[in-house]
Amino acid sequence: MIVNFRLLVLRRSFSTSGAGDRSFVVHCNQRITRYGRIGNVVEAERLFNRMPEKSIVTHTAMLTAYAEGGHMDRARKVFDEMPRRNVAAWNAMITAYVRRRNISDVEEAHRLFLNMPERNPLSYTVMMMGFVDASNFDEAGTLYVATPVEWRDPFCSNVLMKGYLKSGRLEEAVRIFEGMKEKNVVSWSSMVDGYCKNGKVTEARELFDAMNVVRNEFTWCSMVDGYMKNGFFDDGLLLFLQMRKETSATKLEPAIVTAILESCGSTFRLKEGRQIHGCALRLGLDRDTYLGNSIIGMYSKFGWIREARKAFDALGNKDVVSWNSLISGYVQLGMVDEAQQLFDEAETKDSVSWTVMLTGFASKGLIDECIRLFDAMTEHDDVAWTALISAILNRGHYGEAVHRFVDMIRKEVVPNSSTLSCMLCAAAGLVSLRLGQQLHAVVCKLRMESDLSVQNSLVSMYSKNGAVDEARRIFLRISAPNIVSYNAMIAGFGRNGRGEEAVDLFSQLRHPPNEVTFLGVLSACAHAGLVEEGRRYFESMKSSAFGVEANADHYAAMVDLLGKAGLLEEAAELIRTMPVEPHSGVWGALLGAAGMHSNRDLAELAAARILELEPDNAVAAFAVKRYRDVMKGQPGCSWIDSVENRTSFRRQHTEGERVYSNSIQVKEK
DNA sequence: CTAGGGTTAG
To answer: What is any one GO biological process for this UniProt entry (predicted)?
Structure first.
């Protein structure tokens, strides 16, 4: 009905309007623009074709509508066939190419830019956007320098500065920022945000306090979120309260509340989370989809799945993130069936939905389901690949993981830091220095040398491959090592027979040690024969000064330590009196020591216990057989060594070598 | 008609 009426009006307008009816043309141009913005190319095109008189603006609006709808060929045809063009038309065509975020399109944009008869400030800004999006900072920088000084307005400078910040090129960003003659609120806010995103909260706050323009909601939001994302929840909350006092408290930006709720979820702030949720409800902000999604996410992270479900059901405008947040909530609780039900129910799914579901199956070890899901996905991005690879790795299939990684690279999907972290663990597991070094080269190429999780994985990979000095070199370059870094390095020293250095590093710890730290230092003592030190660490751990409970692994390390030193009876006594149930690793340590010191009774005891726990254990079976048939108690027998050359392990190792032998080629970012 | 900040899920 409405459409017919419009057509009627339109028809009358066409018949009554003369060639010079400019207001009608303007009206149609606006409608084409509107159709383009809502993605209705068909209506835009229909109107365009019916217009007897078209202006430059008409063509420009139409080409933009086509481009937004993905029809680049038709957009270009409109541009090429325009009877006359102005700067805006050229800019629009360049913008259309730039928005494709693709190298060849940016090149085409650049050709147009070079050929245009006249340029305005916007031409430079848009072209620079293209280079920035393509991470071509050389060209972007050159173009910035080539931009006439009077045209280097905040608009233009902010684009380049923002690009530098996004790619972690802080110094270049600062250079642009400080060189700007005029800075607006976007310039300041972007720098504050950029510092925060690069972990420099102190510098961000200095700028935040130093700004000479009025802060707006973006500025506040960046700073509050910056505090929270960098682990300073209380400072963030304080600043939020300060904002409420300083600015008009009548309305509140949903974005800032969203940021806080997300942080409540990730730092497990149950009380604050509930309070802020209540506050958002009172202010009527809960209709905001972003905010609603963050509520679902927060309760999911708390494990309060019913609250999450309630927030989901209450949300008026659900989008794909709403669904994904709740699916993720079920997955996090291990409720994979419920997650799958929701996954099947969702009418719109994106790669996140599929990946969440994949990690759900992975958490249950259902590797075939993971692969089935992965194969059913239409697009595989870096995270999807990483989820699959990680699922395969968790099942211990290193060679297969390497195979998938090579596939990923061949498909030209750029690995992220978590992919590389995973793969470095594979290289450690495979004991393949060659693979590890190639991955290290990829890390450098992709500028991920400063990523903490990558650095930690590198330390672990190198030390497991015997290259402990290389591991140490990387460890020393970590700007803010966390407990995982220390654990990797301590264990690395230990397994390479450098017990003193392990002990030394432990004494320099700036973090409370955890279970892994103690396991590392105990193993280090065992390897280096530091019996007294080992005893001391073990006692200090048990004295609960650090709040760490000794588990069976720690006892295994102690049995190993005592056993290697020949204190077999003390080791056996430790097993007898340990408060946790000894697992096969504990008995294995005793078996190894008993073998080394030719204590037949204890070896047989240990082997028997292992076989009770693991009837298929080859080492124990071999030991029992060996003792029964061959060994007559001579010292120095090397049966344990021959078994330790675990054949299955070797096979996997060589399998991995073969798969990645065509060196890994990654395109530079 | 063409241009620049923040927030949610893997």
So the answer is: RNA modification
CA distance A491 to A487: 6
User: Percent of chain A at pLDDT above 70?
Assistant: 90
- Write the pLDDT tens digit of every residue in A611-648: 999 888 888 888 777 766 554 444 443 333 333 333 33
Angstrom distance, A199 CA to B2 C1'? 35
Fold assignment, A350-474: 1.25.40
Q: Which two tokens stand for residue A568?
A: 């077999």
A94 closest-nt by C1' vs CA: B2
- The yes-or-no verdict on residue A423 having pLDDT over 90 is yes
Report whether A571 contacts A563 (CB < 8 A): yes
Strands (E), A250-382: none
pLDDT at A80 exceeding the cut of 80:
yes
pLDDT, tens digit (0-9, with 9 covering 90-100), for A482-537: 999 999 999 999 999 999 999 999 999 988 899 999 999 999 999 889 999 999 99
Nucleotide minimizing C1' to CA distance for residue A61: B1
Distance in Å from B10's C1' to A230's CA comes to 21
Contact A218, A208 (CB under 8 A): no
Three-class DSSP category at A583: coil
Binned at pLDDT 50, 70 and 90, residue A664 comes out as low
Please report, rounded to whole angstroms, the spatial distance between the CA atom of protein residue A499 and the C1' atom of nucleotide B7: 48
How many angstroms separate the CA of A421 from the C1' of B7? 28
- Among residues A388, A385, A262, which one has the least CA distance to residue A325? A262
- Which chain B nucleotides are covered by protein, judged by CB under 7 A? 1-10
**So what's the pLDDT on residue A667?**
56
Q: Would you say A451 and A479 are in contact if contact means Cβ atoms under 8 Å apart?
A: no
CA distance A222 to A212: 17
Q: Is the pTM of this model over 0.70?
A: yes
Q: What is the pLDDT of residue A661?
A: 40
Token pair 């009774």 is found at A601
Which nucleotide across the nucleic acid strands is nearest to A292, CA versus C1'? B8
Distance A25 CA to B2 C1' (A): 19
Is residue A72 within 8 A of residue A66, CB to CB? The reply is yes
What does the block give as tokens for A164?
A: 């530098």
Distance of CA A126 to the CA centre of its chain: 29
Q: Which nucleotide is nearest to A296 (CA to C1')?
A: B8
**Alpha-carbon distances of A92 from A63, A88, A215, A587, rounded to whole Å:** 8, 6, 32, 73
**Cα distance between residue A357 and residue A331, in whole Å:** 7
List the single protein residue with the shortest CA to C1' distance from B6: A218
Our measurement of CA A603 to C1' B9, in angstroms, reads: 53
Q: Could you tell me the sign of the dihedral formed by the alpha carbons of A324, A330, A336, A341, in that order?
A: negative
* Segment A554-606, tens digit of pLDDT: 999 999 999 999 999 999 999 999 999 999 999 999 999 999 999 998 999 99
If you measure CA to C1', which residue is closest to nucleotide B2? A92
**From the CA of A477, how many Å to the C1' of B1?**
52
Residues A438 and A441: their CA atoms lie apart, in Å, by 5
> Shortest CA–C1' contact from A95: which nucleotide?
B2
pLDDT value, residue A546: 79
In terms of Cα–Cα distance, which of A453, A527, A472, A450 is closest to A494?
A: A527
Cβ contacts of residue A203 below 8 Å, gap of 6+?
Answer: A195
Phi, psi of A24 (to 5 degrees): -70, -40
Pick out the nucleotide with least CA–C1' distance to A294: B8
Q: How far is CA A380 from the centre of its chain?
A: 15
Which amino acid would we find at residue A170? L
